[in-house]
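Example 351, ligand manganese (II) ion.
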Amino acid sequence: MEFKRPLVIAGPCSAESEEQILATAQALAATGKVDIMRAGVWKPRTKPGNFEGVGATALPWLVKAKEMTGLPVATEIANSRHAESALEYDIDVLWIGARTAANPFSMQEVAEAIRDTEKMVFVKNPVNGDVDLWCGAVERLAACGVKNIGLIHRGFSGYGAGELRNAPMWHLALEMRRRMPDLPMLCDPSHICGCRQYIAEVSQQAADLNYYGLMIESHINPDKAWSDAKQQLTPAALDTLLDGIKWRAGESSSESYKTALLGLREQIDSLDREILQLLSERMNVAEQIGRIKRENDVRILQASRWEDIVEHVLAQSHNLDLSEEFLHTMLDAVHVESINRQNRVMNEGEE
Ligand code: PEP
Ligand code: MN
């Protein structure tokens, strides 16, 4: 199935009332920039007792919104009952939420319930950063004859996302695209950000990483939304935001651009070689430390020394324009490898 590119799916987090759905649909259609309207009908909520969606009651509202505006409609399905209802109302596009994608039993159930469907089915990344699990979800659909599958990157929970609700971990989404290059991947900046403030920036990042399109939550009266109020945009704000996104070209035929790029890439390659050389030397020194520790019967882990290193590096990096998050990730990787190398030396001593 070929969709227009960039594809824009927009609509409220949840369907709340017929009036809300129809008013939102009309306002979104009026922008001329939205290709598909979304609305959650069954809502997976972290805690019980929160609004869990109006359920199948909302499906006729979506059908009406489509009749009024011509926009195809999309909703989330998480079990076979949802699937059957959505198919019964001929909802055009389906998506599998992040919690469902993380659960193989649910994925299998949904895949069997929509067996052989011609509809487009988007699979969000599982809540945890497991690319294999995301692939598995797609494979279960494909094995049940679902031919039109897409992906939605909505970020990963519990990774210290900082100001964002779900850490984007772009490298995981790019790895998924490398593994499944034929599947269009959209970015869902609304669930990555969790608030309006960063949506434009994250959307632009997605455009610059050559995503196929965006899924953005938009509500006629965001502050009064029954779910995800902080991250929804009015259709007018969405219109402005979409206007501001640059979908840049993948290549340029300009000779000066090509020459400059080549030069910079050579610099990167040479710096990478130097970094690797230095890392290798550092690990050799760690091994020597392991050796003298073994000879002197001292254990490997000396926590205070490591704390000193981290403190020292962070202090020294003050003017280097490297984020603390990056420095911590890099230092953690170096620490793990150092310990592994010292362990190796200790064990050689045991043999
Ligand atoms: C949603 O799209 O409203 C939703 C519940 O998203 P996710 O599954 O990404 O949390
Ligand atoms: Mn939502």
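Summary: The chain has 13 helices and eight strands.
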